[in-house]
Amino acid sequence: MCRAVLGRFIQSVIVLLGVTVVTFLLIHLAPGRPLQANPEFRHDPTAVERWLQQRSLDKPLPSQYISWLSRLWRGDFGLSLLHNRPVAQLVAERLPATLLLGGAALALALLLAVPLGVLSAARSGSGCDRALNLFSLACISVPGFWYAMLLILLFAYLLPWLPAAGMRTPGDGSIQDVMTHLLMPAVTLATAMFAGYFRYVRSCVQDVLSRDYVRTAKAKGLPARIIFIRHVIPNAALPLVTMAALSLPLMFTGALMVETVFAWPGLGRFVVFSALARDYPVIMFVNMYAAAVVTAANLLAELLYLAINPRMKM
Amino acid sequence: MPEGRSHFAVGLSLVCLLAVAALCAPVLATHCPYAPAPEKSLLPPGQEHLFGTDRLGRDVFSRVIFGSRASLAVGGLSVLMAVGIGTAVGATAGYYGGVTDALLMRLADVILSFPSFFLVLLMVSLFEPHFWLVVAVIGCTGWPATARLVRGEFLRLRETDFASAARLSGASDSRVIIRHLLPNALGPILVSATVSVPAAILTEAGLGFLGLGVQPPVPTWGNMLRDAQNYIRHAWWYATFPGLFIFTSVFSFYLLGEAMREALNPSSGKNKSYA
Amino acid sequence: MRRICLSFLVLLIGLTVLTGCAAGNMAARKGILRVAATSAPLTLNPLFVRDAASAEVIHLLHASLLRSDPETLAVLPGIVSCWEISGDGQSYLLRLREDVLWSDGQPVTAEDIAFTLRVICHPDYTGWLYPLVSRIEGAAAYRQNHVSPFADGHLTGLQVLGDFSLKLVLTERFAPFLSYLTLPPLPAHLLAGVEVASLEGHDYSRTAPVVTGPFTLSAWRPDEYLHFQANQRHYLGRPNIAAIYYRIIPYPETQVIELLNGRLDLLPTAVRVEDAAALSAHPQFNIYRNRRLVYDYLSFNLKNGHPALSDRRVRQALSLLPDRQQIVDRLLLGHGEVAVGPLLPLHFAYDPALAKTRPDPRKAGELLREAGVLPLGLRLIYNSGNAVRENVALLFREQAGAAGVDVRLTVLEWESFAAALRKGDYDLAILGRSADIDPDLSYHWHSGGPGNLSGYRNNEVDDLLEAGAGSHDMTERTYLYRRAQRLILRDVPMVWLYYRLAIHAASRKLSNFQPHPETPYYDVHRWKLSDV
After folding, report:
1. Which of A193, A275, C83, C448 could form a disulfide with A109 if both were Cys (CB 3.0 to 4.6 A apart)?
2. Which of C92, C112, C90 is nearest to C101 (CA)?
3. Residue C308 neighbours by CB distance under 10 Å
4. From the CB of residue B123, how many other CB atoms can be counted at a distance below 10 Å?
5. Distance spanning both ends of chain B, measured CA to CA
6. C223 and A119: CB-CB below 8 Å?
7. What CA–CA distance (Å, rounded) separates C56 from C268?
8. How far is CA C236 from CA A244, C74, C217, C218, in A?
9. What is the mean pLDDT of residues A7-18?
């Protein structure tokens, strides 16, 4: 068991190293240097050299990579080219908004998906089941940004009930105020998440329903509600929790499009604008950070499985 | 299963309809999708313009029809590429196993550990936007899922009797892979390709929306929406129709993929998720 | 099962009610102005501004040495209350107002100004303002030879005569110089101990704790808003508006919706021409339009673009293709003027007699055939995000097609666009250029001008521009610049397209709003918010 854990851990480290190489190469093979538009460079060609030197961008690639890696190791993620501030600080400032949106959307999605999934599985094959199935397919087929645009048109313009942008009214920021701002982005994001959970819940419950102990319970004449509460739901819950845990990393990187359209002050919007502005240190940091969170979550999930089911082969 | 069959029929016919629309765009379009006529800016849908006009007075219907070409082509070609790479990698990893397998699968892990749209956005934003760039980037980032699937199939298939028989009869590795194992894994590959197309279409639309997709004046659903975003209050039709086309095409591909999966694997067909 | 559905329904209703209450709770606070911005400023230090948002915010936080009149562009007193130009026209005696205070209560002195100018001339300075002060005697030497990492020492042409007066000596007569002194000072008592190389990344760029402008920064929520409060010590008087929320909303469409819903009071930029008519007819809003010092043009890549472009006839033919009046009428919906040349209608030297170029595809075709370059294929690049330019490009493509020129379009995000420009990876580009408040054209059109990127050279133009900069006489300068402009136009170095008007939308509650060609935040201390 210990060896399996260790092996899995080493694998994760290898993957992360691979991620650093890919990230680094991606950025450095791209044509063009950052911040070409900088007016200073138009006046003074030596400024370019000076500027590159200050950020040690004038060394050969391998040595840049090594020094970047060692700085990463020491927790120094560099300065944003655009904002002239530590990248980690910029990201940390935007993380709470992203977590709030992601958490709200996840809660909303689960709140819908669990009851509807159970309902659908319980009445497998019925008209209700089919309709829900089609609905879930529709949910993943809607382009999020288009949906967001239509929501804004409907609920901020035609029916001016909700704010169209931002996370709070400046100077207000009460819970109620944040909730109002949160509603449209969270619904948009939850729509996309709903389908996955719904289908997963349905299949888990169906799976449990076909097990012998449920059949036995039925044969004993237990009422359906008791069977669900005693047997079905507890047994279907575990895979669901794992699935939710695996989708956590997505929360940490934010919803790029949704945050952009709703001007949500989170990480997703920051990433989009940084990518468009070629703010390389930011791009690299977010890349690494996203990959690290995903890898950690995967590792955790697998270790969890291992703990629950020690006989499983890794 | 009547449900599966009806899904299949509906999905297939919608996909075919879109494909026909894309192929016959010049015949179906009522106007030139490129020629601007600024005096007809933002006209609502009517007899002359079925879906209204855009800011430059171009016919939205004709542009949506022509847009299906680029959008579907990006979807199809990038998936072809992703499935091609994925199959090759998965087959190699699954057939040879050992170090090859470990290395290739770690590579897949590396790609998978980036949030996918983020990676695509990043790669496209670093280079000059272009049709083939978009195809290549979506293709290059989409292969690990197929690779894992094919690897799994191959791990199972290579232990079967007919594979050992083929090997014993002196067939080369590539011959065993291509002639004997691949045909048996074709079903899952096909399903995986079908459900990847809508994801690629959505990705292209997202890139187009950010101005990083296929370049104007070539219309795609994504870059039309980007344009339309500036006029959602002035012209609801401008944003609505390209969006509806994206939705319809994605929906029909998912429907088709779902039906195919069910047909292939009736017991567990419904138990997969798309998350 | 039914119970689950029911509780769900209750939850949904609860949320709706909750949001309904919140929406009704939106009473505007007294004296607080909510302003929209497309992007957040990158710096609050006026010497390091590189983007439009920072340039805007600078006017809220900082007062400048001199100001300019919003209508005539004549130089007006600011922190510098009066000035004298010596007989030879080369030295300037500046007197400061003695009642200007930094927001921490310290007086603004001549040493602050000297310090600011030394920072700009320092070898480690990472901003781009140096060309503005390069004509001060000793500036070049300081920039080359200064060794200390701090902005200490002296420039020979910069003499502090007392707490409130200083003298600047130039290396040559240069008429536009005063108009270059519209920059704000930095607080020497706070920043003199900071190495110049690290000044751009210094906390001051983010917090600007000590300023002279009408407002001070009190909070900055990243990607949400900046909160400004009236500076009680502002030398022009305490602002009527108590506080400003500067909200960052990237999409113009969203900005308008927020304005219509009463969550914003002013859209200082980014009001689209399509919205102007509806907003000005709206009972709650005013639309303001004013000229700016900018023009959009079609640039030729004469260095490494298509070789045919070096033929003047080809350039002339291309300049005959776009229908500028159609662009102004149909794309700008009248919120602009057809551009005729580098002198803008706001400049005193503007030449109203200059004829507008009318589209003439036939003549263009003849010129192209004469030059023997057909069939001609050209690559046109433009930046995304500017709807007007994007549409101009699409129109131009069709108009050029009619004359047998095949134009391929590439829209690029700003950074890629700038990279392509730098590499010369284009034939044609649609660009915007801003002009100075002084009509002096030498920055872009003198063969040695710092902004002359295309390598334009015409000796006669050089002479005229030098004579123009060396004269303090407005009539003479007008004559010289108009002649230079005609010569430049004859060479067709670019295609002037249009001068776009700035459009601002404001709630009727806001009064005394008077935008300046360079900033909407001119005289912001006089703005008033009524309760109506």
Report:
1. A193
2. C112
3. 21
4. 21
5. 25
6. no
7. 9
8. 59, 19, 18, 20
9. 85
Q: What is the bridge-based pairing of β-strands C494-500 and C428-434?
A: unpaired
| Residue that the structure tokens 């994007």 belong to | C390
- C143 vs A: CB within 8 A: no
For residues B149-156, give the mean pLDDT.
86
Query: For residues A222 and A204, what is the distance between their CA atoms, to the nearest angstrom?
Result: 21
The 10s digit of each residue's pLDDT in A260-295 is 899 999 998 898 888 887 788 888 888 888 888 888
Q: Give chains near B: 3+ CB pairs under 8 A.
A: A, C
Handedness of CA B274, B275, C5, C8 (dihedral sign): negative
For β-strands C32-37 and C243-248, DSSP reports them as parallel
B79, HSE (Cβ side, Cα atoms, 13 Å): 23
Within 8 A of A156 by CB-CB distance, chain C residues are 257, 261
Q: Which of C258, C261, C329, C390 to mutate to test the interface with B (most CBs of B within 10 A)?
A: C390
Long-range contacts of C375-378 (CB under 8 A, 24+ apart): C375/C404, C375/C406, C376/C306, C376/C308, C376/C314, C376/C404, C376/C405, C376/C406, C377/C306, C377/C405, C377/C406, C377/C407, C377/C408, C378/C305, C378/C306, C378/C309, C378/C405, C378/C406, C378/C407, C378/C408, C378/C427, C378/C428
The ipTM, to two decimals, is 0.85
Q: Are C532 and C315 in contact (CB under 8 A)?
A: no
For C398, the token pair is 């069709």
Is the Cβ–Cβ distance between C19 and A161 less than 8 Å?
A: yes
| 3-class secondary structure, C355 | coil
The pLDDT value recorded for residue C488 is: 94
Ramachandran area for residue B272 (φ above 0: left; ψ -120 to 50: alpha; else beta): beta
CA atoms within 13 A on the CB side of B103: 6
Write out the DSSP string of C40-94. Answer: --S---GGG--SHHHHHHHHHH---SEEE-TTT--EEESSEEEEEE-TTS-EEEE
C residues 465-524 near A, CB within 8 Å? none
> For C46-72, what is each residue's pLDDT tens digit?
999 888 889 999 999 999 999 999 999
Q: How far apart (Å, rounded) are the C-alpha atoms in residues A97 and A263?
A: 11
Q: Are C275 and C333 in contact (CB under 8 A)?
A: no
Question: In this structure, are residues C37 and C52 in contact, taking their beta carbons and an 8 Å threshold?
Answer: no
Helix H or strand E encompassing C370 = helix C361-371
**pLDDT, tens only, C225-235:** 999 999 999 99
Q: Which residue type occupies C387?
A: A
pTM, to two decimals: 0.86
Give the Cα separation of C157 and C357 in Å (integer): 46
In whole angstroms, give the CA distance from residue B36 to residue C391.
9
- Token readout for C236 is 């022009």
- Chain A residues whose beta carbon lies within 8 Å of the beta carbon of residue C29: 171
Q: Could you identify the residue written with the tokens 């819908």?
A: A112
What's the Cα-to-Cα distance from C247 to each of B45, B152, C40, C244, rounded to whole Å?
36, 52, 8, 9
Residues B274 and C72: their CA atoms lie apart, in Å, by 64
Rounded to whole angstroms, the maximal C-alpha distance in chain C is: 95
List pLDDT tens digits, range C365-390. Answer: 999 999 998 889 999 998 877 888 98
Q: Which of C394, C409, C413 sits opposite B56 (nearest CB)?
A: C394
* pLDDT band, very low/low/confident/very high, at B268 (cuts 50, 70, 90): very low
What are the tens digits of pLDDT across the range B120-139?
A: 888 887 777 788 989 999 99
> Hey, which residues does C91 pair with through a beta bridge?
C169
Phi, psi torsion values for A226, nearest 5 degrees: -65, -40
Residue B3: the pLDDT is 64
Q: Is the peptide bond before B217 cis (omega within 30 degrees of 0)?
A: yes
Burial class (CB in 10 A: 0-12, 13-18, 19+), B172: exposed
